[in-house]
């Protein structure tokens, strides 16, 4: 009985979170404030220690408790508000747990500069935000090691290169300008992904399940 209670507690702790941007590392996860744009209530500090992402192709890793995700990825070179966001791409996902999307790209002229990556999920819980401080670099890198690989659990992603130039207002009332990305590599990546959506999204669901098992085992000790 006790083990069942502890397991239920572990499941509740895992699924209470909306989503967590694991790579690049989130600037801060504040579950109750994730509905507040542009960065879920977190303060983003960009400096030379921020991780690199390659403009031609890079991956993101996300842990999500929602079976259906509707994601938008944007970036900016602004390090203070108001942010001028550039749309990168959009994706719709099916599957719960930790997954890796490895066909993102940014405009080539971002290379060599620091900035912010924003991930937005238009989910059943409302619009949710996370941000990461990054340094954009030249080149391409589609992997995050073992976490960015296919697993036996099913996971699908459908990509879209739909972008628009508009001014949007986030949930905190900030007015932000948004511009469409003109990066050829972004368009190419989105086009390629639409041809093989299943091959272009990878998932670390086994890592998620294994981690949950470790949590439950630890609680039972």
TrEMBL record:
Membrane topology: Lipid-anchor; GPI-anchor
Subcellular location: Cell membrane
Region (Disordered) residue spans: 159-186
Keyword Iron-sulfur: no
Keyword Disulfide bond on entry: no
Keywords, alphabetical: Cell membrane, Glycoprotein, GPI-anchor, Lipoprotein, Membrane, Signal
Biased amino acid composition, Low complexity: 175-186
Domain Copper acquisition factor BIM1-like: 16-152
A GO cellular-component term linked to this record: plasma membrane
Position of the signal peptide: 1-17
Primary subcellular site in the record, as a coarse category: membrane
InterPro entries reported in the protein's UniProt record: BIM1-like, BIM1-like_dom
The organism's place on the tree of life at top rank: Eukaryota
Descriptive protein name: Copper acquisition factor BIM1-like domain-containing protein
């Amino acid at each position: 009985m006790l083990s069942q209670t502890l397991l239920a507690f572990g499941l509740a702790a895992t699924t209470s979170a909306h989503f967590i941007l694991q790579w690049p590392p989130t600037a801060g996860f504040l579950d109750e404030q994730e509905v507040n744009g542009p960065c879920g209530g977190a303060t983003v500090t960009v400096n030379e220690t921020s991780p690199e992402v390659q403009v031609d192709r890079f991956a993101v890793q996300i842990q999500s408790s929602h079976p259906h995700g509707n994601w938008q990825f944007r970036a900016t070179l602004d390090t203070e508000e108001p942010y001028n966001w550039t749309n990168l791409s959009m994706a719709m996902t099916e599957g719960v747990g930790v997954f890796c999307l490895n066909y993102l790209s940014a405009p080539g002229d971002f290379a060599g500069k620091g900035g912010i990556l924003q991930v937005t999920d238009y989910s059943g819980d409302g619009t949710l935000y996370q941000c990461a401080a990054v340094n954009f670099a030249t080149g391409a890198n589609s992997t995050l090691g073992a976490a960015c690989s296919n697993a036996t659990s099913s996971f699908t992603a459908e990509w879209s290169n739909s972008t628009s130039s508009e001014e949007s207002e986030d949930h905190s009332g900030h007015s932000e300008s948004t511009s469409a990305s003109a990066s050829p590599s972004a368009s190419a990546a989105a086009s390629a992904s639409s041809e093989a959506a299943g091959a272009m999204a990878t998932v670390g669901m086994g890592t998620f399940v294994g981690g949950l098992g470790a949590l439950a085992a630890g609680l039972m000790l």
